[in-house]
Amino acid sequence: MPQKPNPELTDEVNPEWTRERVSTAKPANEVLPQIFGTAAAEQMLRPRGRPRVKHPKELINIRLSHDVLEHFKASGDGWQTRIDAALKQFIAQHPGSR
Fold first, then answer.
1. Could you give the C-alpha distances from 83 to 11, 47, 92, in angstroms and in order?
2. Which of 4, 59, 77, 81 counts the most CB atoms within 10 A of its CB?
């Protein structure tokens, strides 16, 4: 048997959403410009986080010699990025060596 709502917790200004209300709701991109203006709405609707890149880095497994790994790890955090940079530099210096 469903419980009766607690009258102290009932919000008359913002009643609970029913299926009927949800089905008639409008998307935020239609409603926000009317309430806050276009500029503020665009800022609110802008995707968050890091922007997507066209060619993201790929997660791979690679076996490196102990000496190579120790060399790059010795200079601290970012060693994987430095290995990536070293490989890019090699490619730039050796074009066409596929």
1. 58, 31, 14
2. 81
Residue with tokens 């530099």: 89
Please answer whether residues 7 and 24 qualify as being in contact, where contact means their C-beta atoms are separated by less than 8 angstroms.
Answer: no
pLDDT in tens, 7-61: 777 788 888 888 999 999 999 999 999 999 999 999 999 988 888 899 999 999 9
Position 66, amino acid: H
Look at the pTM and tell me if it is higher than 0.70. no
Q: Which residue has the tokens 């609970």?
A: 16
Distance CA 92, CA 15 (A): 63
CA distance 82 to 73: 9
